[in-house]
Amino acid sequence: MAVSKRIVLHFPRRLLDKPIVSRLVKDFGLEFNILKASVTPGEEGIMVMELTGDRQSYTKGVKYLTEAGVKVQSLSQDVARNEARCTECGACITLCPTGAFSLEPRTRKVIFDHTKCVVCELCIKACPPRAMELYF
Ligand code: SF4
Ligand code: SF4
């Protein structure tokens, strides 16, 4: 049976220049479609992809990624902002690797664009009043 899932891959710095993803095609017969890719200020690589293949190959491919040192996260998780907690401090603006936060110049409010979020979780740990929350 074929599966197709959206996942987030977190690459530690030491793996950034390694041809890890190409082996998913070559060795496991999987197909992938990269939706977003970026490097965080801490030099962790983040890639959002749709990974498709038969279930057994998919499981083997994800196992290979994990054993190679890549953290694989399912996009069934979601991040939301607890508006009542946000103090508009702006700490998340430069930290977010995909630019999901921006400053509205007129009101000086911090806007959160949920559609740009790749659920890397960086803002969850960094937000001083813990306004960013992870949902499953
Ligand atoms: S870091 Fe947290 S409190 Fe500060 S602007 Fe971002 S979401 Fe709001
Ligand atoms: S989890 Fe936070 S830091 Fe990561 S992409 Fe989403 S909004 Fe940006």
Q: What features would you highlight for this structure?
A:
136 residues; alpha+beta; 8 strands; 36% strand; elongated; binds iron/sulfur cluster
Sheet having the most strands: 4 strands, antiparallel
Q: Give the SSE string.
A: EHEEHEEHEEHE
Q: Please provide the count of β strands.
A: 8
Distance between the termini: 25 Å
Written account of the structure:
The chain has 136 residues and is α+β, with helices and mostly antiparallel strands. Helices cover 21% and strands 36% of the residues. The protein has helices spanning 22-26, 55-67, 91-95, 122-126, and strands at 2-11, 31-39, 45-54, 71-74, 78-81, 101-104, 109-112, 132-135. The chain has a 4-stranded antiparallel beta sheet with strand order 2-3-1-4. Strands 5-8 form a two-stranded antiparallel ribbon. One iron/sulfur cluster (SF4) binds at residues 81, 86-92, 110, 127-129, 131-132. The site of one iron/sulfur cluster has 14 residues, from helix 3.
